[in-house]
Amino acid sequence: MLRKLFGKIPLAWLQVMKEKNRLVVAVAGIAFADMLMFLQFGFQDALYESSTIQHHLLQADLVLINPQYQVLFSAKSFSRERLYQTLSHESIKSVSPVYIGMGQWKNPETRISRSILVWGVDPAGLSFNLPDVKQNKEHLKNINQVLFDRAARPEYGAIGDAFRQGLKTVELNNKSVQVTGLFAIGSSFAADGNVITSDSTFLNLFPERQPNQIEVGLVQLNPGFDVVQVQAQLAKDLAGEVRVLTRNEFAALEKNYWESQGTIGFIFGLGVIVGFIVGTVIVYQILYTDVANHLPEYATLKAMGYSDRYLLGVLLQEALLLAALGYIPGFVIAVGLYRITYVATLLPVAMTLYRAIVVFLLTVGMCTVSGAIAMRKLAEADPADIF
Predict the structure, then answer these.
(1) Residue 252 falls in which region: left (phi positive, over 0), alpha (psi -120 to 50) or beta
(2) Around 315, how many Cα atoms within 13 Å sit in the side-chain half-sphere?
(3) CA distances in angstroms from 155 to 138, 193, 338, listed in the order given
């Protein structure tokens, strides 16, 4: 009867809520650990997402690149003839060459130059699946006219506002160009902004480049043809001179480059591990102190017939309660820091359901581990020492 009555008492909840100061310390520690893990995961995902934004916006079913291609900002070129060679297939509707280079954009206000990613496209062909680019591509047919990325870093100058106020002439690669439109892609870890211009203007800005050497070839298929089958056929016909990828595979290749950079993955991974360890230590200290301070009470419960397994359950309940109470402020703080980071860097940092679940599971895991370790102290509660 006593056991049945006692089982209805929320012992774990009463233990957690008894000492408010200790509870505040525990919640703050877990919130800090969660915030740290959220930030590391958020920055890592922002790196991967920002590095592939341009790839997903390309208007193409298939993409041709140099077999030695590694990363966008230093892409190796290949012969433009290989791209036009694909037009012999009945499945191909159209093709479009793309030139890529890192240019020097001069801020019209500060006169300070900064690297920017420059795209040279065929104004009459396909390029980016962006409404602003499609609407303004006719302007690119005139030499030395460009479209500017209004979501680029502010260090390039307030080009969007200046354009709406009548700004036209800016300097790119020490040459005067006319801004004739705006679009939005945003910054990444590789480039802080983008400029789109015609292939003719690109070659004028980069006189050392050869017209017959391009970085990317965009291929659009006729309706009714299977992308995978056409991809395999083109790869066979081109005999390894170029690599034929789908748009998603092209983006995955870029992401793989950043994932394979050991220092980047190590830094973000280390941050998550540190957050997990910090949270584990804090919760362990709280639970260990609780057990040590109430060792006679736990011994009394053992004398009444409650097993170590039951007491371990109580301890784990305390750990899970602390996990839930600490996760909530950690989540809220992380959302706020994501917003601050986005405003400051324009990187695509935002909370996702998947990340929220992963961090919550890690929080439960670190609190469970802490409870299991603290159980060793609980095992010392011997009724013989009390009575």
Answers:
(1) alpha
(2) 31
(3) 28, 10, 21
Supply the pLDDT for residue 382. 57
Q: For the chain, which residues make up each domain, given as ranges?
A: 2-51+262-386, 67-241
Measure the CA–CA gap between 345 and 352, rounded to whole angstroms.
19
The CA angle 351-353-358, to the nearest 5 degrees, is: 95
Q: Give CA separation, 320 vs 11, 251, 343, in Å.
A: 13, 40, 35
> Is this structure's pTM higher than 0.85?
no
Two tokens, residue 108: 């019209």
HSE, CB side, 13 Å, CA atoms: give it for residue 294. Answer: 21
Report helix, strand or coil for 212. Answer: coil
- Unique residue bearing structure tokens 């405003």: 343
CA distance 250 to 61: 11
Say what the pLDDT of residue 378 is.
64
Predicted pLDDT at 320: 84
- Mean pLDDT per 10-residue section of the chain, whose length is 387 residues: 44 70 83 90 84 89 92 89 92 94 92 93 87 88 92 87 81 93 84 92 94 94 92 87 92 84 72 86 79 68 68 78 89 93 80 93 87 70 54
**Which DSSP string corresponds to 95-122?**
EEEEEEEEEEEEPTTT--EEEEEEEEE-
